[in-house]
Amino acid sequence: MKIIKIQKGRDIPLKGAAEEKIVSLPLPQTVAVQPPDFHGLRLRPVVRIKDKVLVGSPLLEDKTDSRIKVVSPVSGIVSEIYRGEKRALLRVAVQCDGQQKALRFSRYSLKDISALSSKNIIGQLLAGGLWPFLRQRPFARTARPEDCVKAVFVQAHITEPLAPNLDFLLQGKEEAFQLGLDILKKLTSGKVFVCCSPQARSQALTEAKGVEVFGFSGPHPAGNVSTHIHCLDPVRKGDVVWYLGAEDVLRIADMFSQGQFNPQRTVAVTGEGASTRLYYQTVLGVPLRHLLMDPFLDEQRFLSGSVLRGTDVGPDGYVCFYDQQITLLPRGGKREFMGWLHPGWNKYSFSRTFLSSLQKRHPERHVSLDTDYHGGHRAIVLNHIYDDYVPLDILPYFLVRAILSGDLEEAERLGLLECVEEDFALCSFACPSKFDVGGVIRRGLRMLEEEG
Fold it and tell me: Can you give the pTM of this predicted structure?
């Protein structure tokens, strides 16, 4: 394994990591797929309320390419098709019948898989509902089947706060993981990169064959896909690379070896607000209420994902399609009397604003943070802060300025195609102006994609 050391960035040592213990849960009463999770797809329902569906039955299809479908993770009855403002489709829910009857697809032996062409593999992925697990750079949108791909990246290392340990999840699944990698190799004429932690112990990662295995050490965002692509095979204008998660490689292997859609998802329950913090083996689109054993408290914020890029779904929400953790974070909102006069011995900050910066922090000491801004919006002052937390070879301040001014040509020249909003999450956290840097990056990517 080759090691790449990332120097820029910062780890946030939050309280509330999940214990490395997997608990299998019974099927939930209801699951949901949520169209806003799928960037780049214009989805429409292909079912109606009270329709019966099986595991792998299509629920949604893309308006521009009907081959791309989002399928049901459970068997049961469609119970809800929920629309928001301007009739935007927000959720399709399925009431589970507990039987998990599944659609059947073609099964292949190891010998048959080695003889398959890329066209055959793409056809099976599209038919089986696995295509949405493949995303592309630039734009971090769902991949397009007709694109010529120069590389495929497998994310097997996440460095976000309280992120699940993917190395732990892959232990004992070496054969299936290798089969999935062998299938992915047929999708590109270039290389397949597996990006993991240098401390990885799972043989699925350390002994992967026919692919390039790299260990990324250093602080967050060492585990971000943009960091991996930038260091190994940068995206230039006209280039396309695909990426997916490590657990999704196992899902692809099951589709070809078992001939059915595997809906399993392992979700880590994390955060200071959760009293029981474990890894739960469940299905895609599971509701948060099914994962949390605690009574719901108003002072908690319920996130699908991490604190840096998660979605506030509320206590009645569902785990988003690509997320493998949920985080319960104290909501905050309590005002301090003359707080601006306090020295801040117990306050955490990236800067030297508080006297707590003089304390030598023990590596195992974790901090408690809530959702308070601790300040207000103000004008951005040009300094080095953003540069300290973005390991990509770009100029963050000038990139943000180019997007805000509408100069997309300059933004593209400054490296907009190489990044997405999650790469600037630390900048938003550290910004003294309380500026949503990631939101600006997503706006720029959207405008650039619309212009073609």
Answer: 0.95
